[in-house]
Write a structure and sequence with these properties.
about 450 residues, mainly alpha, globular, peptidoglycan glycosyltransferase activity, Probable peptidoglycan glycosyltransferase FtsW, cell division, EC 2.4.99.28, membrane
């Protein structure tokens, strides 16, 4: 086994563009699969709302096209330029988190229980999605090449990062979106872990956070019901299948109907007003029903491959900023996907987090695809990839979409430390030899 893994690693190392190619390919496959599944799961609700059956699919296709444009723009921008605007990006995200709490600007409290959206030109903007990407970019910028053993030193970067992260989590919690707050906290923990903070510190903070979350969920209301439904789903026995457990129970039925090969694309029965949020939170249940076990395994495999090549990109990046950027964005998106899949199959409590790049969404799809464009840009700027393109030319994808050749990293120039000028002791100048000779010659003539 070890020998096979060594050969596989050597094979991948011999192909400098493999990380860039795989990240790009996986993202495009997931985005395409999302359009197909949203089309299948939303047709019935489009007809119910007196719209065309293609209303939601066309909207999703338009959003994905916008996301692919954001992906292309992110590929055009070198990662070091992103670093220069990291602080502005983070400030704009905090401002949006504050604006969404202003009555009359933010919406969603009456519809889904969390005031998390801003309507702009017919699209829903979710500031917490922007903040989750912004904390990755800014965190990678401020924590790169910093000493993780000096967490309390203000100039070291970790203290400002923790303060800003807690501010963002507080603002997201004020929206009532506990699921997004947990997802944001996971991203922050992963950034600190990649920056060198010990597991012990992260474990202690995570323990306090988990205890606080349990207290919030046990305080009553729909969050407490979700916790009870979670234990029902974990043991495969639902008490209230027509009440609080209705959505989870219908998701289980959808997965069970799919069996191994599925009922066929477009043939889901759950989408006929049985499964709530079939195109959003529980779209993985529709995938399992229509495409069967192999369809669900395909989605899980794609996200696992994205995690592998994203972390491999981080390991082979030019510098620590790019490594932190690629690792934090990749793990943040993949962890969100596994949280969504986890609560659909009953391993986690329902949190309302969407399946990235597959669930129907507004600007969340654009933001996610743009963020993955940053990861692909880091992979494209790997030293081996840059050297390969300079010697053999750009790949076909880059030539088709007018992507300029990436520049090689500039070698770091080490300057010698300045030394204090030595104090030279003043010594009187000696008498010139010619002067001594002239004096001797004059004295001889006088003596004669």
């Amino acid at each position: 086994m070890a020998r096979a893994l060594s050969r596989l690693n050597a094979w991948m190392d011999s192909r400098p563009l493999i990380d860039y190619t795989m990240v790009r390919t996986i993202v495009l496959v997931l985005a395409g699969l999302g359009v197909v599944m949203v089309t299948s799961s939303s047709m019935t609700w489009s007809v119910f709302n007196d719209e065309s059956v293609w209303a939601q699919p066309l909207k999703q296709a338009a959003v994905v096209v916008m996301g692919l444009v954001a992906f292309w723009v992110a590929l055009q921008i070198p990662p070091e330029r992103i670093r220069k605007i990291a602080a502005v990006f983070m400030g704009a995200a905090i401002l949006l988190l504050i604006l969404v709490l202003v009555p009359g600007i933010g919406t969603g409290r009456d519809e889904v229980g969390s005031q998390s959206w801003i309507y702009i030109a017919g699209f829903q903007l979710q500031p917490s999605e922007i903040a989750r990407v912004a904390i990755c970019v800014w965190g990678a910028s401020i924590l790169a090449n910093k000493n993780p053993r000096k967490l309390l030193k203000v100039t070291n970067g970790f203290t400002p990062f923790i303060i800003v992260s807690m501010l963002c989590m507080g603002l997201i919690g004020a929206q009532g979106d506990m699921g997004m707050m947990v997802s944001f906290a996971i991203v922050v923990a992963l950034i600190l872990l990649f920056a060198g903070v010990t597991w012990k510190f992260i474990g202690i903070v995570a323990g306090f956070g988990a205890a606080l979350l349990v207290l919030i969920m046990a305080a009553g209301g729909y969050r407490s019901n979700r916790l009870l439904v979670y234990f029902d789903a974990l043991f495969g026995h639902f008490e209230d299948t027509r009440g609080v457990a209705f959505q989870s129970y219908q998701g289980f039925l959808s997965l069970a109907d799919g069996s191994f090969f599925g009922v066929g694309l477009g043939q889901s029965r759950a989408k006929w007003f049985y499964l709530p949020e079939a195109k959003n939170d529980f779209i993985f249940a529709v995938i399992g029903e229509e495409l069967g076990l192999w369809g669900g395994a395909l989605v899980i495999t794609l996200f696992a491959m994205l995690l592998f090549f994203g972390l491999r990109t981080a390991r082979r990046a030019q510098n620590q900023f790019q490594a932190l950027l690629a690792a934090s964005i990749t793990t943040g998106i993949v962890s969100q996907a596994f949280i969504n899949i986890g609560y659909v199959i009953g391993l986690l409590p329902v949190t309302g987090i969407q399946l990235p790049m597959i669930s129907a969404g507004g600007t969340s799809a654009v933001i996610t695809l743009g963020a993955m464009g940053l990861v692909a840009s880091v992979a494209r700027h790997e030293p081996d990839a840059v050297s390969f393109m300079q010697n053999y030319g750009r790949p076909l994808f880059d030539r088709m979409f007018f992507l300029a050749e990436p520049k090689a990293p500039r070698p770091a120039v080490r300057r010698a430390p300045r030394q204090a000028p030595r104090r030279v002791r003043e010594v009187p100048a000696p008498t010139p030899v010619t002067a001594r000779r002239r004096t001797q010659y004059t004295d001889t003539r006088r003596a004669s």
